[in-house]
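[audit] Reproducing an earlier prediction to check determinism. Same input, same settings, fresh worker. If the tokens differ from the archived copy the diff job will pick it up downstream; this log only records the rerun itself.
[audit] input (351 residues):
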Amino acid sequence: MLTARLAVRLGALVLDLHLTVREGEVVALLGPNGAGKTTVVRAIAGLVPLDDGRIQLDDRILDDPGAGVFVPAEDRQVGVVFQDHLLFPRMSVLDNVAFGLRARGAGRREAREAAGRWLQRLDLADHASSRPSQLSGGQAQRVALARALATEPRLLLLDEPLAALDATTRLHVRAELRHHLATFAGARLLVTHDPVDALVLADRLVIVEDGRVTQEGPPAEVTARPASRFVADLVGVNLLDATAAGREAVRLASGFELAVADPVPAGDVAVAIRPRAVALHLQPPEGSPRNHWSATVSAVEATGDRVRVTLDGPVPLTAEVTATSAATMGVAPGVALWAAVKAVDVDVYPR
């Protein structure tokens, strides 16, 4: 189990956060560029010392500036898989995997035998004598994973392990990585900018913005109720600020009131509306929607057979409709439409 309070100052970045990763758990660390994700990995790995705080893995203190404790990277039971793999180009695949064991004092024969077993386990035995330049992106990623696991770490750190792969390879390697992570008994921390990687691979999400944790929890909880604009954009949800306006209504900054299906908590609230829950019309809608308003299209973006339509008006948000529907209504920037959302599709929760 990893328990850490990380306080590091690097230039404009001020990192100050608490992080826990339990044995057998996969935690995904997400955040915008410059949020401090890679600094977290480097601090835990022993590549960046803490200015303050404490890192503990199981019963061992790895870094505690206040107590004068700092365990060098090579002496930590931590395996790291970096985004660009960092394989040695002039070494064979076998020797690349054996390198970590050799760095920890294992003899050459012992290290190569253990490396061979890991290559067999990850279906890489046929490439043992190959150079990294002869491997595909997916094979290189598995070699880096084998090198990290060969040292039998208690904690596995993966820093954007799939970022360098093309879309087709990424899909295949993601499935492989999920399988291999399930066989690793220790704690696992995955750093990624891709919400799909996080949702497929992680048991818990930790969102970092400006060096601090802004939200954490199971994937379903975080995606259903984003706490910041970054998370809302990440999972494709409209996030609006509002205040309670009675038992079953909220008031937006524009003064517009939205009806909701469930009782509204008092005070400031967050409002989440999924783009597919927003219906668009050429005329004021009739029937069931309790919420409808006039809006103007400000942007249109096609994504496969769907079209995302950004709307200006009293409820600024993005709707998502079929390409056929968008074409029928002549959706384009500057076009005036009516938007509607059912009360049951307006999710409200405390700020």
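[audit] rerun output stored. Observation attached for the diff report: The domain at 239-350 is CATH 2.40.50.100 (OB fold (Dihydrolipoamide Acetyltransferase, E2P)).
[audit] end
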